What does this fold into?
Amino acid sequence: MRYGVIFSCQDPEGSPIGHPAVYESALACAVAAEEQGYDWINVTEHHVAADGYLPALFVLLAAMAARTERIRLSTGMLILTLHNPLRIAEEAAVLDIISGGRVTLGVAAGYRQVEFAAMQVDYRTRGKRFVESLELMRLAWTGDPFTFSGDIFQLPELVVRPVPIQRPGIPLWLGGTTEVALRRVVRHGAPVFPGATDEIAVVAQRMASYDRLRAEIAPNHPVGPRELVLPRLAVVADSTKEARRRALPGIRAMLQTYQSWGLPVDFTQMLSNWDLLDDLVIAGDPDHCRACVERYASLGLTDLLLQFAMPTLEPAVIAESQARFMAEVATPAAEVRV
It folds into this structure.
């Protein structure tokens, strides 16, 4: 299993931390993550969010790339439909070059209508826009001349350079867990990437659908390895009671934010019941956290992305959890790096 750390750089109104300290902590934790043996640094995007949820992924990843040498740099997720896909292809290629070929681009279609309104993108077109954007990035990364005529984008012959170090292009993670989205995941040879609010039973259902589609598609189309990338909020402490005490304000801030954005789940009961929360988060002493990881491993988990840097948590608490997880919880990392 491979392990990563997630940063969303949120700082809700009334938080004592402040965004300068949040970003300073993220950069320090990125350097430490490489030293501690993590495989991934992952950043995730939203826009026009009251808590300042990270809106500039490549800016932060470039700063992290300049401070590290080995660790993979990923987005999970970049909301591709809010951007010009050629601009994303160009910026990702530059990041891949300056990082020495360490980028994985996780992309999703998005769901918050206010973001589409803010970026002046028609929300109703996001499905077609996402599919065409994926194809345009693939063409851009060839470095060869191409034209494109789609429902959303019409482009004359052009060439996009520089190309990424990784060939034939930057590896992709694709968001979405509907039947249509999972079929696209399989055809692109990408892993399943459920959301941070998907319970274990839901993740198991996603994997069952993924396996069925792999079996259906494989005879006529090459498929990639069977992979599951899962994000989880996490805190490690001396006791499970103390970990839960430390974690709860950050968990509450995250889940209430998602709920306010229209996610069709009511987290009220879950926030007062750790039997339910344990299906979504990893918060406890090392033994408890290790048991949580083993539950996910039984689903075929290949990559566990951990968000220690939750909103309202002190940087020292974040740094301690990150260090302790790799030292006291994680099983030995795989020899082969993705």
User: Anything to note?
Assistant: The chain has a mean pLDDT of 95. DSSP finds eleven helices and ten strands in the chain.
